[in-house]
Amino acid sequence: MSYRSVFLALAVAGAGIAPAAAADLYTPPPPEPVFEPAPPVSALRSGFYVGVNAGLMRGTYDVTVVTLPDPPYSGYGALVGVQAGYDHYMDGFMLGVEADMGLSSLHHDTIDVFGAKNSSDMLWLSTLRGRIGAPVSNDFLVYATGGLAVAEMRMERGPDSVGRAPGHESNIHFGWTAGAGAEFAITDNVMLRGEYLYVDLSEERYNVARGLPQIDNTYSGHLIRTALSYKFH
User: Fold this and answer.
1) How many CB atoms are located within 10 Å of the residue 1 CB?
2) Residue-by-residue DSSP string for 181-217
3) Long-range contacts of 60-63 (CB under 8 A, 24+ apart)
4) pLDDT in tens, 42-57
5) Rounded alpha-carbon distances, angstroms, from residue 186 to 33, 55, 83, 139, 193
6) CATH fold of 47-232, please?
7) pTM for this structure?
């Protein structure tokens, strides 16, 4: 074999080895990391809150004079107040407690057979309620609520055609309330709510004016309101 043949054989062998060696030296780049977005954080979280509320009331006064019941009278008015409470979120539901108090313009008046103007007013309403709710999404909650209701009522009678002097008296009525609502988290801290409450108050006796019979008065009615709260996480 000539030197030329040997040289060609070595050249061919080297050409085959070089790509294999290069392949052995090549390291593929690491795979690109797969981005997985974090699960959304719910805005409905446990915490204390404070806020303001406003609504409309419609109710019925059931008045009894000397054990002879008068027809029920309807009254209308607005309520503006404040609320404070605490919510605790667990797996799939919420438990909370809330207290609120509002000034009321609920009013009814009528003229009796002696020409005197008689009026009934609710001056304020306060409730202490439990709440139980179920989150529909990360920022929307529906709930039921119920508990104690307390209100101050005032009855007033003007002068009449036979010269009897006017008079008035106020009483505190205790009772219960129940209802439902829905709450939406505008931000992590700001909550907007719509709520319905039925209110039923006890019967109390009024001595409105000297020389007039005692009057027994009770109240039941409906409250629809909206509320804005700030929650501290």
Assistant:
1) 6
2) EEEEESSSSEEEEEEEEEEEEEEEEE--STTS--EEE
3) 60/219, 60/220, 60/221, 61/108, 61/120, 61/217, 61/218, 61/219, 62/203, 62/217, 62/218, 62/219, 62/220, 63/120, 63/215, 63/216, 63/217
4) 778 899 999 999 999 9
5) 34, 20, 18, 8, 10
6) Porin (2.40.160)
7) 0.78
CB 188 within 8 A of CB 43: yes
**What is the residue extent of each domain of the chain?**
47-232
For 172-188, write each residue's pLDDT tens digit: 999 999 999 999 999 99
Model confidence over 71-125: pLDDT tens digits?
677 889 999 999 999 999 998 899 999 999 999 999 888 777 777 778 889 999 9
Secondary-structure percent of the chain, ordered helix, strand, coil, rounded to 5:
10, 65, 25
- Over residues 203-211, mean pLDDT: 83
CB 204 within 8 A of CB 153: yes
Please identify which residue in the block is written with the tokens 């030296």: 25
